[in-house]
Fold these 2 entries.
Entry 1:
Amino acid sequence: MKHMRFALQLAMITVAGLAPLMAGQNPPAPPAAPPAPPAAPAGPAAPAAQQPMSFFVTSAGAPDGSANLGGLAGADAICQQRATAVGAGNRTWHAYLSAGATATQPAVNARDRIGAGPWYNARGGRVAQNVADLHGDTVEQARLGSNLTKTTVLTEKGEAIKGAGDTPNQHDMLTGSQPDGRAYTDTADHTCGNWTSNSTGAAQLGHFDRTGGGNASWNSAHASRGCSGPNLVSTGGAGLFYCFAVN
């Protein structure tokens, strides 16, 4: 009996001594959250918006294919009509044509009537940054050259034009201009009567593909044999010309 009381007292003392220790223990921590899933890979960057068209070659010129465009105003109207037909008529379009001086008006330089640039073709490709770049005004710009080539010079419809090596060759472009984009100052006719003749006279032509005849000038390669449609065809043309948005 005495031994039982002693054992009971000892058990009570043991429990009393462990109670503070048990009370001081923290509850078990909850299990750790599973790791977050890896982030999904970023998708491809959105493509840059295509620049609106601000340059093209007319898909057709005068109705008879001649250099009689109705003067500069008539040529500008053709540019505007072609642009409007493909949804780009909200801009002002001018033909890249020079005109000689007359008794009543000074000469007009093609380079002065096309705006400031930059200019882009129907597929959004840049053909020139500004007027100086277009004409190679500085030594460095002349060395680099503009981006007018057979693959970048397109019609308002975004179509390629037949050039040297194609049938028929239609790389001659009406310009009436010297290489620097200015009108001639001599007394010869370089503009088919300032774009009003389909018979007598001649027009200075450029090669849009910068190929053929030993002259790679896009705006002043050689003169035409005359101003009629057949005259223009005979040297590799179709009465086509460049149009630029001025705004």
Entry 2:
Amino acid sequence: MSRPTPRSNKRQAPPAREQRRTPAGDAASLVAILVLRLAGHLTAAGDEMSKPAGQTSARWQVLATVEDEPATVASIARALGLARQSVQRVADLLARDGLAIYLDNESDRRAMLLQLTTRGRSVLRTIQAAQRQWANALGAELGEKELRAAAATLVKMLDLLDSVEE
């Protein structure tokens, strides 16, 4: 049977004074929170736009990434900022459903290339048509100048965060 350890009468030092965020830090935190909320809305809107084509936002993103040229799953994941495993799962489903095919990769025999099929390209065009209507309506509400300014700030943040991660 173990004996309880006696309580120390020593007072613990108060925790180090927490450093407050600067006004710029508060602004950065606010932007981060708003972008995360926005991401949820964009995913839901993407799911709605892709649903008539029998797709999801995740499947749409992968289809769109290989629209112009085939790519490896790893490069698709990097472009989308996602884990390779999640993109692999989606790519396999797209291939299973006949929307994409895997091709041999001359540059790296271990990493096959994902390419759209004719059916995949047709599905992507259907989703893109819905997205154009959605984007035009949103753009009309907010205005091009305001949206381009927001985009410029987000690009700067992404560039900064990407440089920190490298």
